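Onboarding guide, step 5: your first structure request.
Type a short instruction followed by the sequence, for example:

Predict the 3D structure of this protein.
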Amino acid sequence: MPAFDTVTIAQDPAQPRIARLVLNRPERLNAIAESTPGEIRRAVEWAQAEDEVHVIVVEGAGRAFCAGYDLTDYAEGQAGEHPCRQEKTPWDPMLDYAAMKKNTEDFMALWRCPKPTIAKVHGYAVAGGSDIALSCDLLVMAEDARIGYMPTRVWGCPTTAMWTYRLGAMRAKQLMFTGDTIDGRQAAEWGLANAAVPAESLEAETMRLAARIAGVPRSHLAMHKLVVNQVWLSMGLEQTQMFATVFDGITRHNPEGLWFRRHAEVEGFKSAVQWRDSGRPIPEGDEARALIAELEARLAAQRRAG
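The system replies with structure tokens like these:
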């Protein structure tokens, strides 16, 4: 079996037609590290090359599916210069786009793979974690699990752009405009999840569905998946993802995004997230610029002091 730092992949011992791809950073709620997107892609490629595998189940170790990108280092300024966190003026949007587009393409390996993929969601599948879940073909959720993209309030745009294709325009706009999350029950009611079950039944329900699919010949599964995927491609999925990935970079480098990062650097990422998610107005325009100057002065003082 291939070995990775942030994920694992193996055939299920009891049902070898099912491969289990596990996001494996439980101490960080499986937050996405720099290497995670590429490891997901390589794990999918391994399962795709295994003839015995017919379906891939994607799940998270520990208490959550995936809590999004591991932004603590980047938002608080501990990771140094990064294409997605440029300090130069003017910033280069194409450097940011290249980095995030690679991540998007890596996540979408789950969607492009000719073998069906099922996201088994417990705890949280939020921010970048929702990108991973929604790149899968099917979604089974615990009733109390939460899914959403809170950074649409500030500092993010979902680069896979899957919300509209999965939910339709009206409900996608509601979640994008508010940054709210929904639980598994509501996800099933809205048609985002194929099923929502009590947490203690999640494993059994997911494996029941996977086993049912695994009995179908690989060639048939590949053809059916290609037919459905082609509909979304004809609707412009790839072009939508291009816009979303460019806009994601803008949200991190405009005045509002820079304010969020400076607040995280001075007050800590948890404080910045609490402000973002509280419903409190996000500083914008000249107000954001004034706060940036104040925060940068405080940051400089902190650095001089220690």
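Each response can be followed by summary notes, for example: DSSP finds 14 helices and nine strands in the chain.
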